[in-house]
What we know:
Helix content is about 35%, strand content about 20%. With about 240 residues, it is of the alpha/beta class. Strands 1, 2, 3, 4, 5, 6, 9 and 10 form an eight-stranded mixed β-sheet that branches. Strands 7-8 form a two-stranded antiparallel ribbon.
Amino acid sequence: MNTEILLNELRQYDTPSVTNVVATYPDDQQHCLGLYHPWNSNWYTDITCKCMFPELGPLAGHVVTVTFGLPDSTSGRRSFEDLYRIIEKTPKPAIVAIRQNLPEKIKNKNGLCGGNMMTAFKSLGVIGIISDGPSRDLDEIRPMGIQYLLTGVCAGHGPFVIQEINSPVTICGMDVCPGDIVHMDENGAVKFPSEYLEQVSTLCKSLHEWESKKQKLLAENHSPETLAKIMADQYQ
């Protein structure tokens, strides 16, 4: 099936549902692929990652990674044009995972992404940003429909440069590689290899149908014993 169609299908489901399918319940071989160790692998974001525009709902896309840092003797080897060209070549829709390789004192007040950068990204097919630091210009970004998953917001920044493009990065506890698929919403983000996209989409549909039936039973029953059996999938 067409990749873009599959990504659009994944937007019907929230990110916790996708995590359930990817790795949360490895013993559930009917609904879970078990792609990662649920606790020991860094496959979804932690509590430092905050969603700026929950009203946008779930998004899914192909990842481009970029690392920003302070200007130094190697500055100038990577440019925004280099980044734009890589985003242009990336299958769409695209999500940019931004590592802010900065001292914590600076990182916490570096409003890295803003209206100009996001306007350029949107022109290239970017639908979401995940960053391990803050950004700014929420009022300008909101109408664009680009999701911001950040550690926070602040108003300003100083000079910074691109250090690396499409190298593996860790963003808010999630290890991401170029070409991974990321699903994101107000709960955070989860990644998985692109070759599992169709399986993830199929299992999300199956899981949604199964959980809908289960929650209906939970809502209709009021006996603690029965509710416990339903939760343990022992109720017919």
